[in-house]
Design a protein that fits this description.
Elements (H helix, E strand, L loop, with lengths): L4 H13 L1 H10 L1 H12 L8 H17 L7 H23 L28 H23 L5 H6 L5 H14 L3 H10 L4 H8 L3 H6 L1 H10 L5 H7 L12
Helix pairs in contact: 1-2, 3-4, 3-5, 4-5, 8-10, 12-13
Organism: Candidatus Anaerotruncus excrementipullorum
GO molecular function: DNA binding; sigma factor activity
Subunit structure: Interacts with RsgI.
Amino acid sequence: MVQTEHSIVAQVQAAKIDPEAADAFIRQYMGFIRSETVKFIHTAPENGREDELSIAMLAFYEALLAYEKSRGAFLPYAARAIKNRLIDYYRVEKRHGNVISLHAPLGAETDSGELLETIPDTVDHAEAYETRTASQREIQEFSEKLAQFGLTFSEVADNCPRQERTFTACRRVLEFARPRPELLKRVEDTGKLPISELAAGTGVERKTLERHRKYLVAILLAFTNGYEIIRGHLCQIVPAKGGDGK
């Protein structure tokens, strides 16, 4: 079954907050990951080339976590991430000469284990669990807040500005609203965007505010209750190099 880009984005968004969904998504696209690995190494990723496939899988997972719709279609974005990480891997390999595979056996015996097994696990799993739990809790709370006003994450993502000058306009709206708690409180209480006030205070055209109303409501709501993690996802707004933002 051929998937549309919209359905892929929906899967990516679900995978960001659900480890089981992430695992299922990676399994679903193992053929794609393997194909991108083959394109780079020009051979099947077996018989001593398993490290490259592992690196490609990690790059795919990192792309999943970092992806935003403003970055274009997901699969080309993931393909670039895989290629870039494999390039980095080969640069390190070239710099250090003969790199020993992490899957190399420890001894002559077939059941002696692999070198990978001897490397100490330095990951603080308790801290990682707490971070993931906090993220899931915050995302759930924010999702419920959006639902109060008939909004979903998917709708907000679809309403995200795609042009640099529009991102700049949205930044102006955010910078105008943040020091005005009474304005943020009105948005929180009603779920409505005070378009006239924002247009007068920022110089952004009403039609721009109306076109991206859902996105702007979500951003302003994110600044009402300390949604630190949510802000990181919604507020990746870069200043434009020129453009009037209208």
